Amino acid sequence: MKNKTKLFADIYLVIVLLFVLIPLLSMIIFSFNESTSLIVFTGFTFNWYSDLFTNSALREPIINTLLVALISTVASTIIGTLGAIALSKQNRIFREMALSFNNIPILSPDILTAVAFFVFLIAFGFERGLLTMILAHISFCTPYALLAVYPKVRSLDPNLVDAAYDLGATPGKALWKVIFPQLRGSILAGSAIAFTMSFDDYITSKFASGELVSNISTYMYSQAHGIRPSVNALSTIIVVLIGIKVVFDYVNLKKNRKEEEE
């Protein structure tokens, strides 16, 4: 009976993995297609990868996407981390109210956030462009960063900070030397979520940037004639980088477990 249960579990797991991976594999395969066809593979080429660096129409959205994602990730992670630390010092009622307000943009549909930011920009006469896109991304990424860091902040031992003060540490030094090292994992998780949210965003980017500035998402949606294989090449590079990161984390996790067992 156990063998049958394990067999069914293995089959189910394989089906789920195939369901997830087959679309990615098809995208990777056609990123090497010689023609622009997304149906028929006519030959092998690396042209679409070189096109990422030579095609100015695609190069600009890529640069904008990375620039906006990096800036918004750093800013939202700093704001979210400091906000989580400050929030942990407040009384329970204020803390719960602040967390409820923080969850509003997370639970709201993206279109509401985009329209709200669009109305804000128009009402105050801001000219839409790259800067407003960055501000919009910081705005909707910060709640995710705060939510990722806050639980870890609440679990910190306050005696460690008091001990640092007793040993002569300033508040800034205690924050840098005692609190931040303990929050490193949560900060990295929050920054990863913020980067992913920013990199993938379309609706808010479209409303906040106008027609003159585009990122990868707005560029892809503007391709009425169909997606160029260059986009497949870019997506393949991203998948490979994510795969390397996953394998690296898995190897480190196994290594740490082995060291703990020893």
Topology, pairings included?
Layout: H1 2-30, H2 47-54, H3 56-88, H4 92-107, H5 110-123, H6 130-154, H7 158-166, H8 171-200, H9 203-209, H10 216-221, H11 229-261
Helix pairs in contact: 1-11, 2-11, 3-6, 3-8, 4-6, 5-9, 6-8, 6-9, 7-8
Give a written overview of the molecule.
This protein has one domain (about 30-260): MetI-like fold (Orthogonal Bundle), CATH 1.10.3720. It has helices at about 1-30, 45-55, 55-90, 90-105, 110-125, 130-155, 160-165, 170-200, 205-210, 215-220, 230-260. It has 11 helices and no strands. It is mainly alpha-helical and about 260 residues long.
How many strand segments? 0
CATH superfamily: MetI-like
Give the structural class: mainly alpha
Distance between the termini: 35 Å
Which CATH architecture would you pick? Orthogonal Bundle
Shape: globular
CATH topology: MetI-like fold
Could you tell me the radius of gyration in angstroms?
23 Å
Mean pLDDT: 83
Indicate the proportion of strand residues: under 5%
Q: Kindly provide the name of the CATH class.
A: Mainly Alpha
**Strand/helix succession:** HHHHHHHHHHH
Low-pLDDT ranges: none
Number of helices: 11
Helix content: over 70%
How many structurally independent domains?
1
Q: Main beta sheet: strand number and arrangement?
A: none
What's the quick description here?
The protein is mostly helical and 262 residues long.
